[in-house]
Amino acid sequence: MSEFAGKTVLVTGASRGIGLATAQQFGSLGAKVGLVARDAALLEVAANSISSDTHFVATDLGDPAQCAHAVDEVVGALGPIDVLVSCAGGLYRDFVEDVKPAEFEEIWRVHVGGGLWLTQRVLPGMRERGYGRIVLVSSEIGLFGAPSYASYCASKFALVGLAEVLYHELAGSGVRATAVCPGNVQTAQMKAEIEWGPAGGASFEKGMTAEYAARQIVAAAAGRAPVVIIDRPYLRVFFKLMGGPRGLLRTVVHGAYKPLLKSRAARS
Question: Does position 44 have pLDDT exceeding 90, yes or no?
């Protein structure tokens, strides 16, 4: 039996693409699934594609109050959140000189703000129950800068940083957080990227399927790694080699902040 059978999973960006495939994958494992995105009509179709118990909420995840409402509504319908998968957000191709304030704010508020506000809302209950899984969906270019992705890279880098902050703050609580960093995935977003202009990754046909990415996201939720690369095997090896120094750095940082973390745990 899956670890997630009978658990309540909230997935954002769940009306299409990786978010939808992730919601379907958790549903196939017997989880109750809360689906959150902006478009109610698409969410209803998505919810009907899942055989387990579902509830959907149409909301703007760039708004902290609406994030809190979405969590509360799913909790009311399906029970306390055991797993949060923050997958919502879009992409603008932009060079640094071309970044538009409104587009940057939209990307930042949904990617980073949405992940943060949702985490804030679910975390107290997870801590109290001594169990929780938080997955922040970043990107491979949340690990290295790529030209013409100024807004996107900035926000996806931030999600990796947030996951590593949670790695330290949640140690010993029974709650775990991870940033998953997919490579190219065959979604409408990838098509739009390629239509905009040359990109550094694979062609659309050589991208991973959303279903493959979803299975890896579920595996990451069950695992312990604070940062997980989702890509073809040889590229995962490459990024794992790159991640060695990063893992060592996490160990050093955790040791440096141990007195602070202990004092906070005592206050809690």
Answer: yes
| Residue 73: domain span | 8-263
Q: Is residue 17 left, alpha or beta, with left meaning phi > 0 and alpha meaning psi from -120 to 50?
A: left
Q: Is residue 3 a part of any domain in this protein?
A: no
Question: Identity (one letter) of the amino acid at 140?
Answer: E
- As annotated, the active-site residues are 152
Query: What pLDDT is attached to residue 14?
Result: 96
250 burial class (0-12, 13-18, 19+ CB within 10 angstroms)?
Answer: middle
Q: Is residue 2 part of a domain?
A: no
Inter-residue contact 202 to 185 (CB < 8 Å): no
The token duo for 189 is 């977003």
| Beta strand extents in 151-241 (DSSP E only) | 175-182, 227-230
| Residue 183 pLDDT greater than 90, yes or no | no
Domain count of the chain?
1
| pTM given for the model | 0.87
Residue 1 belongs to a domain: no
